Predict the structure.
Amino acid sequence: MTEFALIARIRARARTDDDVLVGIGDDAAVLQPQSGRALVATTDSLVLDRHFRADWPAADVGHLAAAVNLSDIAAMGARPRWALLALTLPVADERWLDGFLDGFLGLCDPFDVGLVGGNLSSGPLNVGVQLLGDVDPACVVRRGSARAGDLLAVTGTLGDAAAALALADTAPAALRERLRRPLPRVAAGQALASQVSAMIDVSDGLLADLGHLLGHGLGARITVDDLPTSPALAESFPEPTRRWPLQLSGGNDYELLVSLAPDRRESAQARCAALGLPLTVIGSIDRSGAIECIQADGTDLELPHGGWDHFG
Amino acid sequence: MTEFALIARIRARARTDDDVLVGIGDDAAVLQPQSGRALVATTDSLVLDRHFRADWPAADVGHLAAAVNLSDIAAMGARPRWALLALTLPVADERWLDGFLDGFLGLCDPFDVGLVGGNLSSGPLNVGVQLLGDVDPACVVRRGSARAGDLLAVTGTLGDAAAALALADTAPAALRERLRRPLPRVAAGQALASQVSAMIDVSDGLLADLGHLLGHGLGARITVDDLPTSPALAESFPEPTRRWPLQLSGGNDYELLVSLAPDRRESAQARCAALGLPLTVIGSIDRSGAIECIQADGTDLELPHGGWDHFG
């Protein structure tokens, strides 16, 4: 297949929405922003052998590429709207592309996100996604705005993706699903935006991302027994001291980590419950300047490695 | 250097503009669009050994990455505003990054384009850029809207970059400069938007990109003697029949190719002249359904290969 045949193949599957004035096939997309909203823009790339393996179904790669970007939009409390796709492919393999689009568009569609443009190159496999969204400029949630005295809470459960990586071929399907097909917390991000002082998605690992949440001089105390745990993780890692490192430093969770004033706890939890999603308080923010992990009996947990660094 | 040290290094060099509500360092950028304008979005990637060579100075790679994306915005008649950068690097080489930013920001700055976000991954070198701009929704210029009877015109000169590729190490500096440091025709794109019926940037080669300009049933006739030629190209390729293939099919020109009604010729040329840029009429649009290249004496030129295909 030629580059232009591949582009035609992608274009044939893209939505045609009224807010897309010019979509796939021109020099650039032209989009109609909603008046009064701020624009939100993010980009995240997936690299072979870093973020996915050659033996993954293409649909899982497509799903993950959409998910990691939707998760960044979610963490701003924003609404996702449009996607662009920069694919670098070693060969023009239309079956791989079709599978990739199954996963990518399959996750974009339920969020009404249209694929409006992109670029195809040949070279070592690299999946670049740009996601655009919008937000009420008065409701933007930053990372570094946690306050001493805030509670620390996280959506869903932690550690499943890290456990899938640790167990590799022996990982149960439920854990593998969380690694390859995470569900970005888009609705929760919008529901929580008015309730929280800071928000970030957990991609590099809870402790690493918590570090981004804490402004100058702030610290946090996490009660590790309170870390929300899926049944599949509890079954694969029944010993908590083997599970906690995965939950604290594993990454790839794509849950939302928030800080919030104690009097917002109930309303925030009620908003998440309405979405069928738990919001679990796991600790609090203080002025210690450090992150401390304690067990329910009050003893300190030895801190594992602080999270994921692409060049670490 | 760690990923976060590299990000801090990039952040320290980024502009801080009032229209950037949240810039580098959060989950996503938050931007303030200008009311009443449509949003324009494009993405283009540079791949090692495809778009640049390992021995290129990093600043040339940075310049080119910005240029190819700015050129797409220019071809919509739009104003560029913000950039995001998705860098996949084999190693965390801060000297390469500094050089890259010299070239990238050095071209973005004069257009008042701020770097507002991005992503760093480790893997085979891949430079992904997303560029956002805006445009009066009533003045969007499409590709496929040329009309029979329109003139065909192109900004600047054609063939220099292709000649630099053909001559490789023996290419004179003036030609090499056009390959590595093309100047996107941003001001010309905005100046021409109200004058033309269709516009595209010449990246794949004049004939290939002309194909995108022509709607169903349309054709074009190009007078090859009229192809605008730089002094450096004329000197390196004095024989026109060796030069024309480079100008027709070489690509990487990043000039603007437009179709326009004959009565717009003078005003369009005056607008370009005011920018110090020639706009040369090279042919016309007809209903032939084919592209014909003729010499000044009326004889047909054998058509070379139709342009660049990434998977061809």
